[in-house]
Specification:
Layout lengths: L2 E2 L5 H12 L2 H13 L3 H29 L3 H8 L4 H30 L11 H5 L1 H6 L12 H18 L3 H11 L1 H15 L4 H9 L9 H14 L6 H6 L8 H29 L10 H13 L6 H38 L3 H16 L7 H30 L3 H8 L10 H30 L9 H31 L15 E2 L13
Parallel strand pairs: 1-2
C-alpha cells in the first residue's frame, strides 16, 4: 500500500483550495466582465453557472482524487485506462499555463517594487499608463529579444517564492496559505473602504449591483459567465486532483466544495467593489475593461495617480494594490506547480520534492521567453489557446469519462461520505456531470471557434499566422498527445523491466500519513 501525506486540518485544505481558486482573474477579469454585461446581470448568470456547473465539477475532482489518493494522471487511469491521456492533457496544459502565469506574477512584483514612482505622477494619467511598458520594454508584437534586467530579476524572485511555498508539498502549502489567503482579503477591504468614501463611488457601486435586464439577451453574457466560473475554480488543471488526494477520509467534501466556491465568488465581488468604487471616484467608469493586463497595468495606474493630490498617498495605495495582486497570484502559481508535480511523481514513483525542483527549473527557463520584449505577445497567444481551446476540451473529456463510462453513484457517495448538514442531491450531481456541464462547455468551445474562424477569419489578434501556429495550435496538439507519448515511454520501460505500473482501483486501500506535520524522530546514535 502507498503511504500518502495529508492536510493537517480541514481548515488548511479549504484555505489552500480557496487560495488556488482565487487568483488574478478574480481581481481584474471578473470586474471587467461585470462592467461589460450590466453589472448585476452578470452576477446573476455567474451564480447560476456556479451552481449548475462549477460546484458539481469541483466536488467531482476532489472526491475522485481522495478515493484514489493520486494526482490527475493516475486518477483518470483509475476511471478507465483509456482515459489516462485526459489526465496527461490536464497536467501538460497546467505546465504550459504556469510557464506564463509566473511571468504575470513577476510583472506584478515589478510594479509593486516601482510603485514609488506614482508619487511623482499626480494627475499625469498618460505617464502612469506608460509605466508598465517602459519597465518591461514590451513591443506588444512578435518583435524584440531583449530582456530587461529588472523583469528577469522579478521572474527569479517569483520562481523562488513559488518553490519556497511548495517545497514540502501539502505541509509547506498548509503553512503558507494561512497568510496568503487572508492577506488579499484584508488589503481588498482597505481599498474598498478608501474607494467607497470617494465622491462618485456610489455610481460605480450602482453599476456593479443593479441588473440591466436587457443584457440577458446577449449570448456573450452567458459565454463569459460560464467561462469565468470554469476558469476561476482551478478545475481541469490537475490542481484539485492534487489537493483532493491529500484530503482526509473524515472530510466533508460536499460542504467544503460549497465553502470554496462561494468564497471564490465573494472575493470576486469584493474585488468588483474595489474596482467600481475606485473607478467611480476617479471618474473612470467608462474605462473598466475585461482585459486583465490592461486593467492592472494601464487603467488602474491612471486611477492611482488621480486618487488624491497627495503623491505619497497615491504611491502607498498603488503599493497596496500590487501587494494584493502578489498575494492573489502566488497561491494560484504554486498550486499549478503542485498539481503537475503530484501527477508526475505519482505516475513514475518519484520523490515529489525532486519533481517539484525539476518542474520549477524547466518551466522557469521556458518562462524567460515571456519576459523578452516580444513576451507579452507570445503570452497572449499561448494563453488564448491554453484557456479557450485546451482547458475547455479537457473539461468536456473529463465529463464524458466520469459521467458516461464510470458509476457516478460511487463518486456521489464519496462526495457525501461525511456529509452532515448538506448532501449533494443525486439529480443535481448527475444532471450536471452528464448533461449540463458537457453541453455548456461544448457550447463555450463552439462559440470560441465561431468567433475565431467566422468573425476573425481564423486569426487571433494581429499576430503573424506562423506565431499562432507555433505558440497556439502546436502547443494544443502537444498537450493532447502528451499522454500517448508518455504511454510509449512507459511501455518501453515496462518491457525492459525498469518500471511497474500500479493498479489504480476504486476500492484499493491506501495508507495515509495521519500526522503529516509530525517531526521525524531523531536517528539513534
Amino acid at each position: 500500500m502507498e503511504k500518502r501525506g495529508q492536510w493537517s486540518s480541514r481548515f488548511t485544505f479549504i484555505l489552500a483550495a480557496i487560495g488556488s481558486a482565487v487568483g488574478l482573474g478574480n481581481a481584474w477579469r471578473f470586474p471587467g466582465l461585470a462592467a461589460k454585461h450590466g453589472g448585476g446581470t452578470f452576477l446573476v448568470v455567474y451564480l447560476f453557472a456556479m451552481l449548475v456547473m462549477g460546484i458539481p465539477l469541483l466536488m467531482m475532482e476532489i472526491s475522485i482524487a481522495r478515493r484514489f489518493r493520486k494526482g490527475a494522471i493516475e486518477s483518470m487511469r483509475g476511471i478507465g485506462k483509456k482515459w489516462e491521456p485526459v489526465g496527461w492533457a490536464a497536467t501538460s496544459n497546467a505546465f504550459v499555463i504556469v510557464c506564463y502565469y509566473s511571468v504575470v506574477f513577476a510583472w506584478v512584483i515589478l510594479m509593486f517594487i516601482n510603485s514609488w514612482q506614482f508619487a511623482g505622477m499626480t494627475g499625469e494619467s498618460k505617464t502612469a499608463s506608460e509605466l508598465f511598458f517602459n519597465l518591461t520594454e514590451t513591443t506588444g508584437k512578435i518583435e524584440g529579444l531583449g530582456i530587461p534586467w529588472q523583469v528577469l530579476l522579478c521572474l527569479v524572485i517569483a520562481w523562488g517564492l513559488i518553490f519556497f511555498c511548495i517545497r514540502n508539498g501539502a505541509n509547506s502549502v498548509g503553512k503558507v496559505v494561512k497568510f496568503t489567503v487572508f492577506a488579499p482579503v484584508v488589503l481588498l477591504l482597505i481599498m474598498a473602504i478608501k474607494g467607497c468614501t470617494m465622491p462618485g463611488a456610489m455610481d460605480g457601486i450602482k453599476m456593479l449591483f443593479v441588473p440591466d435586464v436587457s443584457a440577458f439577451r446577449d449570448p456573450s453574457l452567458w459565454v463569459d459567465a460560464i467561462g469565468q466560473v470554469f476558469y476561476s475554480l482551478s478545475i481541469m488543471m490537475a490542481i484539485m486532483f492534487a489537493y483532493g488526494s491529500y484530503v482526509g477520509d473524515d472530510a466533508d467534501i460536499a460542504a467544503d466544495a460549497m465553502i470554496i466556491a462561494f468564497s471564490d465568488m465573494a472575493i470576486s465581488v469584493l474585488s468588483g467593489i474595489v474596482m467600481f468604487s475606485t473607478m467611480g471616484g476617479t471618474g473612470m467608469l467608462d474605462q473598466v475593461t475585461p482585459s486583465g493586463i490592461a486593467t492592472a497595468f494601464i487603467v488602474y495606474p491612471q486611477a492611482i495617480v488621480n486618487l488624491t493630490e497627495i503623491g505619497w498617498f497615491n504611491a502607498v495605495f498603488g503599493a497596496i494594490f500590487y501587494l494584493m495582486l502578489i498575494t492573489l497570484a502566488i497561491d494560484s502559481a504554486f498550486s499549478i506547480v503542485e498539481g503537475v508535480s503530484a501527477a508526475v511523481s505519482d505516475k513514475f514513483h518519484l520523490k515529489p520534492k525532486k519533481v517539484t525542483i525539476a518542474i520549477c527549473v524547466i518551466s522557469g527557463v521556458i518562462s524567460i521567453l515571456f519576459v523578452t520584449q516580444a513576451g507579452l505577445a507570445w503570452l497572449d497567444i499561448v494563453d488564448n489557446w491554453a484557456n479557450n481551446v485546451n482547458l475547455i476540451l479537457i473539461g468536456v473529456l473529463e465529463c464524458l469519462a466520469i459521467g458516461w463510462t464510470f458509476n457516478l453513484r460511487k463518486v456521489l457517495d464519496e462526495v457525501n461520505k461525511n456529509a452532515k448538514r448538506f448532501k449533494m442531491p443525486l439529480w443535481w450531481f448527475v444532471a450536471s456531470i452528464k448533461f449540463v456541464a458537457p453541453v455548456l462547455l461544448t457550447g463555450l468551445f463552439a462559440w470560441n471557434m465561431f468567433t475565431l474562424f467566422h468573425d476573425n477569419s481564423g486569426s487571433y489578434g494581429d499576430y503573424p499566422i506562423w506565431a499562432q501556429i507555433v505558440a497556439g495550435w502546436a502547443v494544443s496538439v502537444l498537450v493532447f498527445v502528451s499522454g500517448f507519448i508518455a504511454k510509449i515511454f512507459v511501455n518501453r520501460k515496462i518491457a525492459k523491466g525498469r518500471y511497474t505500473e500500479d493498479e489504480v482501483l476504486w476500492d484499493q486501500p491506501v495508507k495515509v500519513d495521519k500526522k503529516p506535520n509530525r517531526k521525524k524522530a531523531k536517528k539513534s546514535r
